[in-house]
Amino acid sequence: MTSTISSTPLTVLTLPGWQNSGPDHWQSHWERTYGYSRVEQHDWMRPLRGDWSVRLEEVVVDAPGPVLLVAHSLGCILTAWWAAHSHNVGKVQGALLVAPGDVEQPDLIVPLRGWGPVLMQPLPFQSILVASDNDPYCSFERAQKMSSAWGSRLVNLGAHGHINAESGLGNWPAGHDLLVSLETSKD
């Protein structure tokens, strides 16, 4: 869906993580409130990096103009992998990367087989990485390393777990302000 946060036609795509984002997740709130579009994946429970990357590529290619990515958890890891291989990264104006899932954590290696290692190279577009002090799926120190490697501005949200529905953020207006800042600024 085209963004309503400016007069410029801009497609805002939400990229949920493993197991998708439920109705109380801030991504779902933003889709309902602002009309953003979710990149639907074939299998949310057994994600395959190649399949997810191809699906993201299809949606970006089909977007009528510039794109903003709004990724959560495994969606952040997807963004890094996709950006390293796509010929269409020029369509992406920026990415809001929230609570990246550390696919190299021992308890995630088996269920997310094929997603590691985390690709640690600069993203070819501006980005903001939002991390929590007590995320069970990624330590703040690891999120700092990802942010540095990706060239992302790091925002410490404090103790908000995995920054998901259980974090109680609702529509998360402060997060939306970060997204708006990506639309209104250019590197």
In what order do the strands lie side by side in the largest sheet? 2-1-3-4-5-6
Count of extended strands: 6
* Radius of gyration, CA atoms, in whole angstroms: 15 Å
Give the helix tally: 6
- What about the largest sheet? 6 strands, parallel
SSE ordering: EHEHEHEHEHEH
In angstroms, what separates the terminal alpha carbons?
Answer: 24 Å
Overall SS class: alpha/beta
Mean pLDDT: 94
Instruction: Determine the fraction of residues in helical runs and give it as a percent range.
Output: 25-40%
Beta-strand percentage? 15-25%
Segments where pLDDT lies below 50 for 5+ residues? 1-6
What's the overall geometry? globular
Description of the molecule:
The structure is a single chain. The chain is of the alpha/beta class. Helices cover 33% and strands 16% of the residues. Strands 2-1-3-4-5-6 form a six-stranded parallel β-sheet, sandwiched between helices. Helix 3 links the parallel strand 3 and strand 4. Helix 2 crosses helix 3 (74-85). It starts with 10 loop residues before the first strand and ends with a helix. Residues 1-6 have low confidence and may be disordered.
Please give the structural blueprint:
Layout: E1 11-15, H1 26-34, E2 37-38, H2 49-62, E3 67-72, H3 74-85, E4 92-98, H4 106-109, E5 126-131, H5 140-150, E6 153-156, H6 173-184
Parallel strand pairs: 1-2, 1-3, 3-4, 4-5, 5-6
Helix pairs in contact: 2-3
